[in-house]
Amino acid sequence: TPILGMDDFLLVNADVLTDFDFRHLMQPSPGADLTLAVIDNPAHHPGGDFGLVGGRLRDIAPRLTYAGIGRFSPGLFAARAGQRFGLADTIHRAIKDERAFGVHHPGRWIDVGRAATLARARQIG
Predict the structure, then answer these.
(1) CA-to-CA distance for 92 and 2, rounded, in angstroms?
(2) Could you say which DSSP state residue 120 is in?
(3) Sheet containing 100-104: which strands, arranged edge to edge?
(4) How far is the C-alpha of 120 from the C-alpha of 58, rounded, in Å?
(5) Tell me, what's the pLDDT at 115?
(6) Residue 121 contacts by C-beta under 8 Å, 6 or more apart in sequence?
(7) To bridge 113 with a disulfide, which of 15, 30, 75, 104 should be the other Cys (CB 3.0-4.6 Å)?
């Protein structure tokens, strides 16, 4: 059994405050290796990460930003077991293979890993 198990899993950045409804990730799209929540580009990341067309992630403009929330297939990581690697490489490989999907989140999302945005999150309560 792979270290990540056999079932898809959710990966959520610990420094995100959001009202994202995780139920949007519970039913994967057929053929999906990953499904990511994407947001409109925050001020600290104006260029975004990838486009979203018809529910699929694409390496095109206009770009949106990865929200640090996603559903991943453990098979994406099997070939890299025991290695260090960047998650962005894995995401972009799934996009290239047309196995990456996305859900746009127009609601609250704050990166509380930054001093200024942490202060704003504390004001929200």
Answers:
(1) 22
(2) H
(3) 9-12, 65-72, 34-39, 100-104, 56-58, 51-53
(4) 32
(5) 85
(6) 17, 110, 112
(7) 15
